[in-house]
Write a structure and sequence with these properties.
Length: about 100
């Protein structure tokens, strides 16, 4: 005989929980900027080394972003993806 007890996972009196779009999309966003159309994906730290095109330093052991163009006529594949320090990507249009 089935139990008449209600589930305790989410009480009926609680409000709706908003969808976390960042989590649902895996941290991937589309960006339209003066320098083109981009896909920007946040990634976790890893032991693999990458060279940041913004500062020409090694990106290793820290969370960072992977970026690729979506408006390129040719390319846009895995080989065109670049790993940037998050701060370098955020400040890429500024001159030092």
């Amino acid at each position: 005989m089935p139990s008449s007890r209600r589930s305790g996972k989410r009480p009926y009196t609680t409000g709706h929980i908003e969808l976390d779009l960042d989590r649902a999309t895996g941290g991937r966003t589309n960006l339209s900027a003066e320098d083109g159309e981009w896909v920007v994906q946040r990634v976790r730290a890893s032991d693999k080394q990458y060279r940041c095109p913004g500062c020409d330093q090694v990106v290793v052991g820290i969370a960072h972003v992977v970026v690729w163009r979506t408006d390129a006529l040719v390319g846009g594949g895995v080989e065109d993806r670049r790993h940037w320090h998050t701060a370098c990507w955020d400040h890429r249009g500024r001159r030092r």
